[in-house]
Every structure is written in C-alpha cells, then in structure tokens.
Amino acid sequence: MHRLYHDFMNLQRGKKEGLVSAPLVCAGTKEDLARLGVTLREGMEVLLYEPDPTPDGGPGFLEVLATIRYDADLQCFVGDFAWDDLRHRPEGETRRK
Fold it and tell me: How many domains does the chain have?
C-alpha cells in the first residue's frame, strides 16, 4: 500500500454520508506520487499521512486509510475516508508501505 502526504486542513465533505474527501492536489502529495512512480486510479487504497508532533513534542503522524476516486466537481482525485478512522501515531508506530 502506498503512503501519500496530505494536508488535513484541506478537506471536503464526502459524496457519501459519513465520508470526508481529501483532494490529492498538495505539492507533497505530487512529490510522493512522483517519487513512488504511482498513478492514482479509482478504488485504489492508500494511506494518507501528515507529520504531526506527539503530545510530548516527539515525531508523529496523522494517518488514515483512504479509497481513491475521481471527483468531477473538483476535477481531481480525492481520497475518501471516515473522519473517525483518522489516527495519530508516534513515528515508531507509523505503518509503512
């Protein structure tokens, strides 16, 4: 599974009840896609992440498993996920590809 950067301040209401959509247009997302040689496609699952310090100031990440779809209104791929699935993980516990 590919791990892609996303700025969680850039979210949209999902098309389906209970889902949030993350437009995958951030520079960091594009850098990860290029570095990994990944082309997004409908139904693909990815792990979205954003660096976020732990309460004690150590390194950590916000992470969530998202399903890719193309949003015709936004004219970009988005990652859909349930808000309650978004987790904070210390760096050592972060999932890897």
Answer: 1
